[in-house]
Write a structure and sequence with these properties.
Immunoglobulin-like; four-stranded antiparallel beta sheet; elongated; 4 domains; single chain; mainly beta; about 0% helix; five-stranded antiparallel beta sheet
């Protein structure tokens, strides 16, 4: 242990012994005779005989707190497109925390390592030039340290070019995607101008690519002209005339109607379709309504409707079997209405609504009048 003698004030006591008292008593103090040896000093004290001194022991102490200082250089070059790392260094006690203000070039990050250092790193993907930052180090001891830092992006630039094809084809009602690709330095941003069909989106991936993706609406068939642009700040920007084709799928139609159970109860009506249906829509009982026909007119009052007890779709045969809640009279005429309207009408596997009127366009009800003597072979639907 090391010892230090602080300012001592001496006086004589009644016993005749001269004593000394320290001017500061906030640290550990010890008393020893003047003839003693200061601990750790290896020499005798200089006090007069009989005097008592109060000594302050200075134990091993940590470094005193002091304000931070940034010691690393105030500039660094980052080559365009090349991974580079730079360490910001500081001194100070306690260990300073580091931060930065200013716009970093794309691709570069600033991370405080919580040990008095911070790291600027990444692959610069921005136009060459000087990016001015202010780096700050703080540890609670004033003043904070600040440094005006220059991050210099260097390297050759390249105007953008769109490399991907200028057309894509989607099928209405089916999911699809197309990737637009562009090159350039810095990495180009991509955009499109033109009306997209419902269900498709164009998204810039911020890596020189963009994705055209989604499920076109069943009624979105057609050709869509678009203009795709790639820009990175280097003149000229790249443009491409792009053609998006959405192939319309023919909507489902009813091919025939068959009746079973003429003398049994209940009656089963089987509808055959020309293409696969959406099973969920095909199994909805509410999509099918039967009504008796009087003098050529269907009876539309709610109480006159004949309820459908079940509707079962068979994907293998593309048929829907409807079981009525009561037997249909063999000598009467009936009307069936199959819902082909949004939002819950029958749709095909691509989501296109039923073409009940056989016009080639989706979104219409199938309505048919038949007799109770309907053939087991089925009544073909004309048109």
């Amino acid at each position: 242990m090391q010892w230090r003698l602080f300012g001592l004030k001496a006086h004589r006591s009644r016993s005749g012994i001269r004593s000394c008292h320290p001017a500061v008593e906030s640290m550990e103090s010890r008393t020893l005779l003047s003839t003693g040896t200061l601990p750790g000093s290896g020499s005798s004290s200089a006090l007069a005989p009989g005097a008592v001194a109060s000594l302050v022991g200075v134990t091993t102490m940590g470094a005193l707190n002091h304000a931070p200082t940034i010691t690393s250089p105030a500039t660094r070059a980052f080559p365009l497109g090349v991974f580079t790392s730079f360490t910001v260094r500081t001194t100070g006690s306690p260990t300073p925390a580091l931060g930065e203000t200013g716009t970093l070039p794309k691709g570069i990050t600033f991370v405080d390592n919580h040990d008095g250092t911070a790291t600027l790193s990444g692959s610069a993907d921005a136009l060459p030039g000087t990016y001015s930052l202010v780096i700050t180090a703080a540890n609670g001891v004033s003043p904070d340290a600040t440094q005006n830092f220059s991050l210099v992006v260097v390297g050759a630039v390249l105007a953008p070019t769109i490399r991907s094809g200028d057309h894509a084809s989607f099928t209405a009602g089916s999911a699809g995607s197309f990737v637009v690709t562009a090159t350039g330095a810095p990495t180009p941003a991509l955009n499109e101008v033109g009306a997209l069909p419902r269900g498709l989106t164009f998204v810039d991936n911020h890596d020189g690519t963009a994705t055209l993706a989604g499920t076109p609406a069943p009624d979105a068939g057609g050709t869509y002209p678009l203009t795709i642009t790639a820009a990175n700040g280097v003149v000229p920007a790249a443009t491409q005339s792009f053609v998006l084709d959405v192939v319309a799928v023919a909507p489902a139609r009813v091919l025939r109607l068959q009746r079973f159970g003429v003398r049994a109860q209940p009656t089963r009506i089987v509808l055959t379709f020309d293409e696969p249906l959406n099973p969920t829509a095909a199994d909805l009982k509410s999509n099918n309504v039967f009504r008796p026909v009087v003098r050529g007119r269907g009876q539309n009052k709610p109480r006159q409707a004949i309820r459908v007890a079940s509707a079962v779709y068979d994907p293998a045969t593309r048929t829907v079997t409807l079981t009525t809640s009561k037997r249909l009279n063999i000598n009467r005429v009936y009307q069936i209405t199959v819902n082909g309207l949004a939002p819950q009408g029958l749709t095909n596997q691509f989501g296109s609504l039923l073409d009940g009127q056989r016009t080639g366009l989706p979104g219409s009800n199938f309505v048919m009048t038949f007799t109770g003597k309907a053939s087991l072979k089925g009544i073909p639907v004309s048109g």
